[in-house]
Design a protein that fits this description.
- The chain starts with a helix and ends in a 6-residue tail after the last strand.
- It has one domain (3-82).
- It is of the alpha+beta class.
- β1 and β2 form a beta hairpin.
- It is globular.
- Helices cover 44% and strands 24% of the residues.
- The protein has a three-stranded mixed β-sheet, covered by helices on one side.
- The longest helix is centred in the last third of the chain and has 17 residues, at 59-75.
Length: 88
């Protein structure tokens, strides 16, 4: 079994919720919702770097959201998005 297959089959290390706070900066917050807090703390830094000045309606947001989802899969962090629209 390769390293990648082993990682994919492993259970999540942590879970987090990414919340859009509104149009006034800072726009985003990442909350630890379970698992290893240190994993979420390190993940939070990268998420906030990708989303720092992006509201959800910005075209760059979709690309960055896809990157964040891919990062969460690699790092085994389960994500929940809360964009404040009710359909997340």
């Amino acid at each position: 079994m390769s390293y990648v297959e082993n990682e994919i089959d492993s259970p999540p290390l942590a879970s987090a919720r990414i919340v859009y706070l509104g149009p006034v900066a800072p726009h985003w917050e990442v909350y630890h919702t379970g698992g290893e807090r240190k994993v979420v703390d390190l993940f939070r830094q990268r998420v906030l770097a990708r989303l720092m000045l992006l509201p959800p309606h910005d075209p760059q947001f979709k690309r960055n959201r896809e990157r964040i989802v891919k990062d969460s899969e690699i790092e085994r962090v389960t994500l929940v998005w809360d964009l404040g629209t009710g359909d997340d």
